[in-house]
Amino acid sequence: MTQIAWIIYIPLQIIWLPVSILAATWVGYKQIWHSRKLGLSQTAVEIINGRWTAHIFGLRDDFAAKQLAAALPNNSTLGLRLTLFPLMVAKFIAGHPILYPTLPDDDQASIANLVFSRSARIDALIKTYCSQATQFVVLGAGLDTRAYGPLTTHNMTMFELDQPRIQKSKRDALARAGLNGDHVHYIEIDFAQPDWHLALRTSAYDPARKTIFLWEGVSLYLNAGIVHATLNSIRQISAPGSVVIADFYGERMLNLANKTAMKHTLSMTDEQIGFGLDLKTGPGDTLAALAVATGYKLGRYHLMGTAHRKGAFMAIAAFEVGDVPA
Ligand SMILES: C[S@@+](CC[C@H](N)C(=O)[O-])C[C@H]1O[C@@H](n2cnc3c(N)ncnc32)[C@H](O)[C@@H]1O
Fold first, then answer.
1. What is the pTM of this model?
2. Which fold has domain 106-320?
């Protein structure tokens, strides 16, 4: 069936191309211009659209992302459907996605599949640690939907931290999407403020309990000083056995994101590329050095895209506080 899917997909995609281009332009317009107008994050929409796509194509279950993506004022899931329609037909025929979206092995991962690869590896790391943790803190939560899915069955106290405007807009969209956030403690913070952690400490958060901190898709937009200070602050308010699960980016990704057009697009919503790591030579040592410098032990990690001649573009790592039992 995969061959038949390709035979139908190629001419369909050619005929459909004008619709795909118009629909993708509409999605981009909503994502960039409406985010700018509303003072929201365009990168958060980019990520939830990746998770929406993964769900629609059967790559990863995320019903909440499907619902939330459709309830955002700065997004168009109809536009996404129209853009991806030929690939959806091909997936229907083949019984699995062809070409896009895909989930390659770590070494073969590409920037085009970044969100799919990242979500899957992070899900696996959360699964590894969640039997020991009783709190789950999403740092720079944006439109992340982990607190509204299967993780809710693990009885962890849940926290989402982000900038006030982003968080208010998310809560409004959650209500429109019919997703219940009553169990989530929403905390307004800005990592650029050195005392951001006080808001967490004075909430229902208990520093004596083992906690999973998820810091996904955020360090890239901060400078090195803030990344180091934030990791240090988290460690200081964490019980031994806690873990920070985070993604970090290599030069390959930074160079792409810093290209003029992308830089200009990001600047429209006051977002910019900041922190990166040298993932080309000795990436494991580089990650371990960051973990040690900020007071952690490097746990499991993934290096994505190592088959490329320029090395990995992304690392996903667990930074452990004190001893984490195996
Ligand atoms: C690309 S989004 C990722 C969102 C989410 N972690 C996910 O994976 O879906 C980046 C998020 O980081 C947040 N962020 C960026 N800079 C921040 C800062 N200085 N303080 C707090 N949050 C920040 C943005 O508001 C946005 O929600």
1. 0.95
2. Rossmann fold (3.40.50)
